[in-house]
Amino acid sequence: MAVWVRRRQGLDALPVTLARRRLYILPTRGGIAFALLWLVMLLAGLNYGNSLALFLTFLLAGFALVAMHECHRNLLGTTLTAVSAPPMFAGGSGALILSLANAAPQTRYGVQAALDEGALQAADLPAGGSARLELALPATARRGLLRIERLRLTSTHPFGLFRTWTWVHLAIEVVVYPRPLGSLPRPIASGSQPGAHPRGSLGADEWLGLRPFRDGDSPRQVDWKAYARQAPLLVKEYSPTGSDLCLFDFAQVPIAELEARLAQLARWVVEAEAGGERYGLMLPGTALAPNRGPEHRHRCLTALALYGLAPLPSPAPLTGGAALHA
């Protein structure tokens, strides 16, 4: 079934608007029970020639048809605008964040999403508005890339008699960092130079960039020119040239087992970033110069996550189905 659906729909590209031809609808268990009850009422009404019972039976049939139409329309035209997958650590929890938009003039109630056959998360989409859904990712003990083949969007609104659903096929890859473990002390490579000025002397400091203003920052370090151009309140950040640098070298870690060695390096990276230190990473074939900040942390941990791993195979080509979206 999954292969047939993927062949029929092809691969998707964001944003994805749910068209009529890709929505499927079937009765729920409650809907099947309702249909059986309706059939019993119909047979009883015909057997006894009771016009009131027949009137109620056909009234309920009309009610079911309206419910089926409304259930299908509740998902029709919904747009999946964005999918973000923040990196996660091996053995830890992660999340996939979906952004849904509703261009219709009516609210869409109980729009649900799930990872393949996983647990459903629901949200109401206001008229002309948007909403976010956070799906829990399955924990994995292996570092590398976690590939998510498809997402399920569904709804049973109103009354729960019918379920309409669709599959969205996207190339989603989540970076799984090595789990930070180990007890070795961090190596320190001193960057001190003779005659360097003491900390706080801007003439000897190295420019690092701008960061958001925090309580306690000196007004003299605020970038007032950028603020005058209606930018957020930013603070100029410097690093003394005479400060120490942390250099994490894969070859210098005295651990034989590969995964344990990468876990130790990951712990050093996390600790150095938490301490506001500048650090670099050296792997066979990869050298990341000393720096700091969330982006540098991500580059270092990603290099550790992907080290020595073969790239994931591309999804199998589709034949005989819908054309692939670019």
Short characterization:
By secondary structure, the chain is an alpha+beta fold.
Question: How would you describe this protein?
Answer:
By secondary structure, the protein is of the alpha+beta class. It has three domains: 2-177, Sandwich (Immunoglobulin-like), CATH 2.60.40; 179-190 and 244-310, no CATH class; 198-242, no CATH class. The chain contains six helices and 15 strands. The strands form four sheets. Strands 2, 4, 6, 7, 9 and 10 form a six-stranded mixed beta sheet that branches. The protein has a four-stranded antiparallel beta sheet with strand order 1-3-5-8, with no helix packed on it. β9 and β10 form a beta hairpin. α2 (29-48) packs antiparallel against α3 (51-75) and α5 runs antiparallel to α6 (294-306). The longest helix has 25 residues, at 51-75. The protein is elongated.
Summarize the helices and strands and which ones pair or pack.
Elements: H1 2-9, E1 16-17, E2 24-27, H2 29-48, H3 51-75, E3 79-84, E4 88-89, E5 94-101, E6 108-115, E7 121-125, E8 130-137, E9 144-155, E10 162-177, E11 205-212, H4 224-228, E12 234-240, E13 246-249, H5 258-274, E14 279-283, E15 286-291, H6 294-306
Parallel strand pairs: 4-10, 13-14
Antiparallel strand pairs: 1-3, 2-10, 3-5, 5-8, 6-7, 6-9, 9-10, 11-12, 14-15
